[in-house]
Structure prediction request, 111 residues.
Amino acid sequence: MSRKISGRKSAVAAVLLAGLSAFLYLGNRIILVAEKQIDVFADIEGMEKIATLIPGDKVPVLDCVDTKPLIIPHIALPNGPQGYVIRGEFKIERHRSWDMNTDAPVSFSCS
Prediction:
C-alpha cells in the first residue's frame, strides 16, 4: 500500500512540475509603451475615454481581446482603473514570466 501512495505522490509532483514549467516558459509579462499620445477607453467599443497615455508611458498589459481584425490590449493604468487601447502608436515589450523587474502580471493571451 505504501508503494501506491508513493507512486501517487510522484505522479502529483510530476504534474505540478509540468504545470510550473509551462507557466514559466509559456507566460509573458507584457508592457505597452506609448510612442505617441494614445487614448484609453473603458470598453472595447471605444465609447468612453478614461485616460490618455503620453509618449514614453509604460503600462502593464493584463490580457488581450481578439476582435479578429484587431488585437486590443487590456491595460492597467497607474492610478488603478483598467482600460483598452483600441488604436494608436505603441510598442510591446515582452518579459519572461520569471522576470521580477516589471509589475505586469503573467499573460498567456497576447501571443
Q: What stands out?
A: The beta strands are 28-34, 38-41, 49-53, 58-66, 71-76, 82-84, 90-96, 106-107. Residues 73 and 103 are 16 Å apart (CA to CA). DSSP finds one helix and eight strands in the chain.
